[in-house]
Write a structure and sequence with these properties.
The complex is a heterodimer of chains A (114) and B (111).
Chain A lengths: L4 E3 L2 E4 L5 E6 L6 E8 L3 E9 L2 E5 L6 E5 L5 E5 L8 E8 L9 E2 L3 E5 L1
Parallel strand pairs in A: 2-11
Antiparallel strand pairs in A: 1-3, 3-8, 4-5, 4-9, 5-6, 7-8, 9-10, 9-11
Chain B lengths: L3 E2 L4 E5 L4 E7 L6 E7 L6 E7 L4 E4 L2 E6 L4 E6 L8 E9 L3 E4 L3 E6 L1
Parallel strand pairs in B: 2-11
Antiparallel strand pairs in B: 1-3, 3-8, 4-5, 4-9, 6-7, 7-8, 9-10, 9-11
Classes of the chains: A mainly beta (114), B mainly beta (111).
């Protein structure tokens, strides 16, 4: 079956702009989580959506937001981009609120802010 | 504050020998621990997990050990193979399905 699809793969934006990243989970998966990966910090949890509802949120400023649609596809938005937002953004889906072994990650979107 | 720490950024091991990757955590409320493997340009893939009520879980060449009193987790790979060369992340689950990841250890298995 198709894996988790993230688009676009690469993105270059200017400081102050906003960006929207997209994630299509595995068919049938209703839980989608987003992570930010940076070299020094590893994977930092952004938020989790389950059946269109945000169930959990990490310690990120309000500039980071997301949503989930009825077909379980999810988007995350970052407004007023800062240089420090440059990172790999990973989306993970699971069948339900799994304990982790049900997580399947996408290949990520590499965001560069200049 | 980093609740899950991997203090070794890199590790090199000869093919056929044992690879031991370590992870420390601070939150005693974590109830599930996992290891993920990541190749360049790919997302992490799940490798093995362990519940906090156990101290060992084995899956083929991979064994995870949990020492709750020391708040320490380790992954043993025996025997190591060149295809195991990747970045390994340990992760821990807190209440509400929120996962905390370490910063990763880059493993190189030398043929």
């Amino acid at each position: 079956k198709a894996g988790v699809t993230q688009t676009p793969r690469y993105l270059i934006k200017t400081r102050g702009q906003q960006v929207t990243l997209s994630c299509s989970p595995i068919s049938g998966h209703r839980s989608v989580s987003w992570y930010q990966q940076t070299p020094g910090q590893g994977l930092q949890f952004l938020f989790e959506y389950f059946s269109e509802t945000q169930r959990n949120k990490g310690n990120f400023p309000g500039r980071f937001s997301g949503r989930q649609f009825s077909n379980s596809r999810s988007e995350m938005n970052v407004s007023t981009l800062e240089l420090g937002d440059s990172a790999l953004y990973l989306c993970a889906s699971s069948l339900e609120r799994a304990r982790g072994y049900g997580y399947t990650f996408g290949s990520g979107t590499r965001l560069t802010v200049v | 504050d980093q609740q899950v720490k991997q203090n070794s950024p890199s590790l090199s091991v000869q093919e056929g020998r044992i690879s031991i990757l370590n992870c420390d955590y601070t939150n005693s409320m974590f109830d599930y621990f996992l290891w993920y493997k990541k190749y360049p340009a790919e997302g992490p893939t799940f490798l093995i997990s362990i519940s906090s009520i156990k101290d060992k879980n084995e899956d083929g060449r991979f064994t995870v050990f949990l020492n709750k009193s020391a708040k320490h987790l380790s992954l043993h790979i025996v025997p190591s193979q060149p295809g195991d060369s990747a970045v390994y992340f340990c992760a821990a689950r807190a209440f509400g399905n929120q996962f905390y990841f370490g910063t990763g250890t880059s493993l190189t298995v030398i043929p």
